[in-house]
Design a protein that fits this description.
CATH class: Alpha Beta
Radius of gyration: 18 Å
Helix content: 25-40%
Order of helices and strands: EEEHEHEEEHEHEHEHHEEEHHHE
CATH topology: UDP-N-acetylmuramoyl-L-alanine:D-glutamate ligase
CATH superfamily: Ribokinase
Distance between the termini: 33 Å
Number of strands: 14
Length: 310
């Protein structure tokens, strides 16, 4: 089983418009709500690929009740931890040309007793997990080492971990030595305090991040694919050119399908190929949508792998 954790989930309001143009009106073509948050998204992808996943997420207030309702028919296991603060709401707007605006609420603070309940929920599920994905932002005021503590607990149980977060939580989590860390380009630039522009810089960044504590790094680069690093090897996974409609969630599809593939055969380069295929295929769909296994497999055949020995 692949366990996912989302401590700062959201109700995603996904709006598709005809065009996004500065100082001009746009007409809404479609609007829908979905349960959001990186861990929840990861469980959705793993489940659609035929994998077994359980998602742990917080839920509070009226929006938390709506989140649980949306998750009720998702098909995978869900453990919700009740918190006092209302679950946040995010707004995603995309047009038919692929231009996208994402507006996220930060979320509200979580109390010490609530943090303890989250750790207890994780502790109950960890013994049955092979992988644990710690995903997304943390609410304001949450201890920066919260993910790090859970990584250390997972290591004691020999559960592999993927860390997908930003800022201080990413720095502290790296020190705990996760199996994989999966930043996107912007998160890597903030971590390293350096702009990344060229292939050589992407490769160097992946190596530097690995040396900060992770066994493996998956550096997501959007339409350019990703760069992966493990001891002695750097791998580039380059996607085919596609017409992107909405890139929101593509990074989650990449991380989820990477873990799904690693769970199958432990082939790092092949897992990167599956990850880039899922992210690329998902970006061609409207709104926050995730490609099916068949849609991903069609792109998988076109992803190029370049291995660079170190």
């Amino acid at each position: 089983m692949i366990l996912t954790l989302t401590v700062n989930p959201a109700i995603d309001r996904n709006i598709t418009v005809d065009q996004l143009v500065f100082e001009d009106r746009a007409y809404i073509l479609d609007t829908r709500e979905s349960a959001g948050g990186r861990g929840i998204n990861n469980s959705c992808v793993i489940h659609s690929f035929g994998g077994k996943s359980t998602a742990i997420a917080t839920a509070g207030g009226e929006t938390g009740a709506r989140l649980k309702q949306l998750l009720g028919g998702c098909g995978f296991g869900v453990d919700t931890v009740e918190v006092q603060a209302p679950t946040r709401t995010n707004l995603n707007i995309s047009d038919r040309q692929g231009l996208t605006i994402k507006l996220n609420e930060k979320g509200a603070a979580i109390g010490k007793d609530e943090l303890k309940r989250i750790e207890e929920a994780v502790g109950k599920r960890l013994p049955e997990a092979r992988w644990f994905m710690l995903c997304g932002s943390m609410p304001p005021g949450m201890p920066a080492d919260f993910y790090a503590r859970l990584i250390e607990t997972s290591k004691a149980l020999r559960v592999k971990t993927l860390l997908d977060t930003d800022g201080e939580a990413l720095e502290a989590g790296l020190e705990a030595g996760p199996t994989v860390v999966a930043p996107n380009q912007q998160e890597a630039e903030r971590l390293l305090n350096k702009a990344l522009l060229t292939r050589a810089q992407f490769q160097e960044a992946a190596e530097r991040i690995r040396l900060m504590g992770a066994q493996m790094v998956v550096l997501s680069l959007g339409s350019r694919g990703c760069v992966g690093s493990k001891e002695g090897l750097v791998v580039e996974a380059v996607p085919p050119r596609v017409d992107a409609v909405c890139p929101i969630g593509a990074g989650d599809a990449l991380a989820a399908s990477f873990v799904w593939a690693m769970r199958r055969n432990e082939d790092f380069a092949d897992a990167l190929r599956w990850g880039v295929a899922a992210g690329t295929a998902s970006a061609t769909l409207p709104g926050v949508s995730f490609a099916s296994f068949e849609q991903t497999r069609a792109i998988y055949e076109q992803v190029q792998i370049r291995e660079i020995s170190r």
